[in-house]
Amino acid sequence: MAPPFPREARCIREALDRTDPQRRAEFDRDFQEALRKVAEDYNTGHIDTVLDDWWGTAILAEYPPTEEEEAIKARADRGDFSGLIRVDETGLEWREDAHGNLWRTDDNGNLWWETPDGKREKVEANTTPEEN
Predict the structure, then answer these.
(1) CA atoms within a 13 Å half-sphere pointing along the CA-CB vector of 101
(2) What's the sign of the alpha-carbon dihedral 117, 93, 1, 125?
């Protein structure tokens, strides 16, 4: 995962300048156009739009994906989401293990698991599901 990267025009420009000067020139044009629009209508949202559009580009330029991250993306592009975080219908995040079981820790530190057939239960401390 990339380190925190400020969503600021100066930081985006510096990152692009170090990694891809041609893209930096594109950012400069977009940012100057946003400033022109702000001068016309005083809607600073134009700047936010440019920052939103370019922030991810600058992060990827400064911190390109690792080979492992590229492999995960390629696997997901093929439809294989094993080992990734899943979000259930209530918005809770679950991690999948090699056996297809889903695991999560709640706000109280309790460990929960769900089997591929949908059985969900709390796991007691110092045990594994097989011991329950």
Answers:
(1) 16
(2) negative
Look-up of token digits 């011991």: 131
Q: Which of 43, 64, 85 is the last residue of a domain?
A: 64
For every residue of 18-32, DSSP letters joined together read HH-HHHHHHHHHHHH
**Rounded Cα gap, residues 59 and 111, in angstroms:** 34
Residues in Cβ contact with 24 at an 8 Å cutoff, skipping those fewer than 6 apart: 13, 16, 17
Sign of CA dihedral 86, 97, 76, 52: positive
DSSP E strands, the chain: 85-87, 93-96, 102-105, 111-114, 120-123
Tell whether 24 is covered by a domain.
yes
In whole angstroms, give the CA distance from residue 92 to residue 109: 14
Is 106 contained in some domain? yes
Residue 128 lies in a domain: no
* pLDDT per position as a tens digit, 89-105: 777 777 777 677 778 88
* Tokens of residue 119, six digits: 């059985």
Domain residues for the domain of 94 are: 68-123
The model scores a pTM over 0.85: no
